[in-house]
Amino acid sequence: MSKRDEKIAHYRDFVTQHTITLDDELLVKVTIGLGPSIYNKNAELIACSKTDELVTVRENFLKKKLALTLDDETLDKAIKEVCQEIGTSVTNKFRAVFYTLLVKKFDKADIYA
Fold first, then answer.
1. Residue 113 and residue 106: Cα distance in Å, rounded?
2. Range of the domain at 82
3. In Å, what is the CA distance from 30 to each residue of 11, 69, 77, 89, 113?
4. What's the total number of domains in the chain?
């Protein structure tokens, strides 16, 4: 099993453990799209308590990668909803899972087709 496959298996376990509903194929594609960042502990995780982290998600992922043109307030609300969906008590939220939920929320899976 490759390191990437190990990460994907770990993310699948996380999703199952936290009863999160998402498309497994999309999770794999988003994980592949994240490239080597999944191997860096800091880059692999999202901290919902860090405002600068959430701004980065909004600016670099939602606006640039997903090409969303919605206002910041709407995008921030969606990010907070995903934080709550994963669980506010879960301190280590995996970027691949987080981004997959955002892709699903904004119906942008076609970007990973």
1. 15
2. 3-105
3. 11, 20, 21, 24, 10
4. 1
110 in any annotated domain: no
Give 92's pLDDT tier (boundaries 50, 70, 90): confident
Contact 80, 93 (CB under 8 A): no
pLDDT tens readout for residues 11-54:
999 999 999 999 999 999 999 999 999 999 899 999 999 999 99
Domain at 45, CATH number: 1.10.238.120
